[in-house]
Amino acid sequence: MTRYCAFFGSINVGGNRLSMADLRYAFEREEFANVETVVASGNVLFDYDDRPTEGLEELFAHMMADRFDIESFVAVRTKDEVRTAIDENPFADKGEDKRVHTHFLEGQPTKAQFEKLVADHEERGDEEKMALGRRCLFVDYVDGVARTRLTGDYITRRLKHRHTARNINSLRRILDKM
Q1: Are residues 99 and 77 in the same domain?
Q2: 44, 61, 81: which is the final residue of a domain?
Q3: Residues near 152 by beta carbon (within 8 Å), at least 6 away in sequence
Q4: Best exposed site among 23, 30, 42, 70 by fewest CB in 10 Å?
Q5: Residues 68 and 17 in one domain
Q6: What is the DSSP string of 137-157?
Q7: Domain check: are 39 and 92 in the same one?
Q8: Are 42 and 8 in contact (CB under 8 A)?
């Protein structure tokens, strides 16, 4: 069995309230093994026979809509992919752990899409630093997430991919539990 983490977007923010106990129960009803949640923002660890993550992402998005009436983007990554999301983040050891994020993307943006995001954002004069990874966008929110104009919608419009983000602190906790 492979160990995975499902990163749900839009859980326990913006009115989409869901208890982690209910989310765990939904996974268990779908016969996933060793289900565990980490932090109350929609991080679910589970074991399952090796399967392409895209199929799992679709299954979980459907499950959220069907059982909880919540539209949510879901990024599913293996333990190795979570480790890579930390190790390949060029800001992980330079910035503050709570301000350095990995945005898990639904697909791989083109170089041109990434360059447009960076160029458009630089014109605004903001301080964030960005780098592109494999189905990831790495961001150092130098002045903090609460003050940024580099919002989720802004990123989605330019990269043409939905995403959900976690900071380095959360990712290290998740990896430790995996």
Answers
A1: no
A2: 81
A3: 163, 165
A4: 30
A5: yes
A6: EEEE-TT-GGG-S--HHHHHH
A7: no
A8: yes
Total number of domains constituting the chain: 2
Q: Among residues 51, 81, 111, which one ends one of the domains?
A: 81
Give the domain extent around 38: 2-81
Angle at 77 (CA atoms; ends 75, 83), nearest 5 degrees? 130
86 and 166 in a single domain? The answer is yes
154: nearest Cα among 139, 143, 169, 175: 139
Whether residues 93 and 76 fall in one domain: no
Per-residue pLDDT tens, the chain, 178 aa: give them: 899 999 998 776 566 778 889 999 999 998 899 999 998 778 999 999 866 777 899 999 999 999 999 888 999 999 999 999 999 999 999 989 999 999 999 999 999 999 999 999 988 777 899 999 999 999 999 988 888 889 999 999 999 999 999 999 999 999 999 9
Contacts of 162 (CB under 8 A, 6+ apart): 9, 73, 105, 106, 156
SS3 44: strand
- Residue ranges of the alpha helices (H) in 34-151? 53-68, 79-87, 111-123
